[in-house]
Amino acid sequence: MTERFTFTLQATDGKARRGEITMPRGTVRTPAFMPVGTAGTVKAMYLDQVRDLGSDIILGNVYHLMLRPGAERVARLGGLHEFARWPHPILTDSGGFQVMSLAALRKLDERGVTFKSHIDGTEYELTPERSIEIQHLLDSDIQMQLDECIRLPAERAEIERAMELSLRWAERSAKAFGDQPGKAMFGIVQGGDVPDLRIRSAERLAAMDLKGYSIGGLAVGEPQAVMLKTLEETLPVLPEHKPRYLMGVGTPDDLLQSVARGIDMFDCVMPTRAGRHGLAYSCFGKINLRNARHADDHRPLDEASACPAARDYSRAYLHHLVRCNEALGGMLLTWINLAYYQDLMAGMRAAIEAGRFADFKAETEAGWARGDIAPL
Amino acid sequence: MTERFTFTLQATDGKARRGEITMPRGTVRTPAFMPVGTAGTVKAMYLDQVRDLGSDIILGNVYHLMLRPGAERVARLGGLHEFARWPHPILTDSGGFQVMSLAALRKLDERGVTFKSHIDGTEYELTPERSIEIQHLLDSDIQMQLDECIRLPAERAEIERAMELSLRWAERSAKAFGDQPGKAMFGIVQGGDVPDLRIRSAERLAAMDLKGYSIGGLAVGEPQAVMLKTLEETLPVLPEHKPRYLMGVGTPDDLLQSVARGIDMFDCVMPTRAGRHGLAYSCFGKINLRNARHADDHRPLDEASACPAARDYSRAYLHHLVRCNEALGGMLLTWINLAYYQDLMAGMRAAIEAGRFADFKAETEAGWARGDIAPL
Question: Which residues form a coiled coil (chains A, B) (predicted)?
Answer without folding.
Answer: none
